[in-house]
Write the structure tokens for this entry.
Amino acid sequence: MKKVLDKGYVRLVDVMGSDLSVVNSARVSFNKATETLREEDIKLIHFLAKNDHTSPFRHATLQFELYAPLMVARQWWKYIIGSSHQDPFTAWNESSRRYVTESIEFYVPSESEWRGKPENQKQGSGAPLGEPLGKALTEKLLLQIESGMKNYDWAIEQGVATEQARLFIPSAYGLMVRWYWTVSLQGVAHFLTQRTDSHAQSEIRNYAETVKEIALEKFPVSVEALLKYTGK
Ligand SMILES: Cc1cc2nc3c(=O)[nH]c(=O)nc-3n(C[C@H](O)[C@H](O)[C@H](O)COP(=O)(O)OP(=O)(O)OC[C@H]3O[C@@H](n4cnc5c(N)ncnc54)[C@H](O)[C@@H]3O)c2cc1C
């Protein structure tokens, strides 16, 4: 499990395949297979990625458990092809706040982590705001969470259904949520191309960099090749 932000993490649950699966699924056209990755296989993987022969990259699959603020999960949810609840071949499952199954946690940026508005862009962030203001922002966010959680706990005590009492949960964007993400190797590369980019929000970029580390450990040649050529 690799920690991300103050309370989140990325955990690889399972993996199917290796760089060899990409090679062998491409070579099945010639009824050939190999058990070790040779120089010519590495070249083949680069050739496939460069020329958009993407189907061999969909024979490998990764399954992650993610724990992240809701604002990050919402951005992640937009990856549909080969990677989400809307794709008939893969799945998206997440913990439910209709039940009281786990403690409620929030992402709270530390004093030094608040960022200002960007100067010339509509989206994104500018320079760090510094500590005097950062301290006030962190304190205000904590107060807001405390006040909302008091109302939530009160509603639960009154016997309100958890699925409705959750309307009182404050700071919904920062609420930590947990989900499983099963995704093809091609889907991972697509996600990484967009979400390790400097235009992506810094919080999801932290997660993407961690996913990239894990994907590179498991598929060093394919991930390098896909990131080199796809989306460019
Ligand atoms: C910096 C940044 C800012 C963003 N801002 C916003 C925003 O303000 N609001 C918002 O709603 N979203 C926003 N998004 C999300 C963005 O619009 C995409 O939904 C998200 O990045 C997922 O990418 P995708 O659509 O390529 O992925 P997928 O839906 O997984 O698609 C993967 C690829 O499959 C192909 N594909 C998918 N569907 C079809 C189809 N029907 N026909 C043909 N080919 C298809 C395309 O090549 C596509 O790139 C933002 C994304 C980024 C990276």
About this structure: The radius of gyration is 21 Å. Residues 131-157 form the longest helix (27 residues).
